[in-house]
Amino acid sequence: MDTVTRRRFLLTSGVVGAGALAAGAGAYSLRDLLDTSGDRDPQSRTLVLVTLYGGNDGLNTVIPYGDPAYRAARPELAYPDGEVRRLDDDFGLNPALAGLHQRWSGGGLAIVRGVGYPKPDRSHFRSMDIWHTAQPDRPGNTGWLGRWLDRAGGDPRLAVSFEPALPPLLAGAQSAGAAVPVTDRKAAKGLPAATLTAFAAAEAGESAARGRAAACFADLRSVDEMIRQVRDSADPDTADPDGEQAPATATGGARTPLDAQLDLVAQCVEAGVSTRVFSVSLGGFDTHADEKQLQAVLLGQLDRALTGFADRMSRTEAGRKVVVAVYSEFGRRVRANASDGTDHGTASDVLLLGAGVRGGWHGAPPSLTDLDDGDLKYTTDFRDVYATLLERVLDTDPGPVLADWRGRVDKLF
């Protein structure tokens, strides 16, 4: 990610100090990370933070199917009991979350319920600022993991984003994490272009079957090139139709599929790089209309990426020290809107899986009838989750990072 792009993202989000811009403005590649192989304590854990941009509907992710208020509030969006992947007699997972359901059955998935903060804000930008800074009263100019990075020595490679731009949560006062574009990845054992061209070329005297195979391969290469051109032309810095520069948006997320981002994380973990924190993302969760099918598609992508990554991590000692945390900037309203969707809400769930995570329920579920102007009342402060991750995964005192916050999620590890 070039310096200008990263600086624009940070400034439009309003979260970063000048020192962090100077310290973290350089571009990094996968090779820069791999150069640190062997530099870390093999006993230390790794945090992988997955952001679901747009505000994922928590009530149709972890579904309170046993509560009559769920179906009454959203009759068209509610899942029938028979479609829910049951966790117990009251709650179940979205039908698209087959892999996570299996992990729950094996004790490998933790669900922290009702996570939010006081005086919630339904703006994407403001809510992400709050989640990134861990300062709900008045978001400051540093991210919570950026402040951790300042205390951990400031090497940008300790905290890495595989998103299109450096997220503000990795910006500290004196340092900032590294943004490593996924598109910089090169195939380790790819075939030369000349060989691929030869595969697609017709040859005199070849059989009809071989001729068809070559033609199909040539078509495949043409489609791949077209997709590459479209992807490369989709520059996040292009101007909007009104001629103004389009700002970074909290409803975005990486253009690269989540499984590709997590594949890079896995390569780094298996190589033993020094990175302690990875930030990845999936966007598209702002489901104001026709929510059910769209969310199911996105949750299916999330499920395949997470379960594939978790299975891969379970095969190595370094991988078994990885903790994954999944969150979104807010949940959705309890009641559906008139467009078969849901509008911006408040509290939702945080999902965790991986090393030492104690599977099962954590925290109390919010009531679907005792609401705050139609929204769920949070039951777990998000700083409790952050403090627990700092303490148990990153081996640091949460106090200086979270302004002496004392809350924790009990028995999460």
UniProtKB/TrEMBL annotation:
Mind telling me which Pfam families this protein's record contains? DUF1501
For region Disordered, the annotated ranges are 232-254
Enumerate the InterPro entries for this protein.
Answer: DUF1501, TAT_signal
Q: PANTHER family of this UniProt entry?
A: BLL7424 PROTEIN, DUF1501 DOMAIN-CONTAINING PROTEIN
Q: How is this protein named in the record?
A: Tat (Twin-arginine translocation) pathway signal sequence
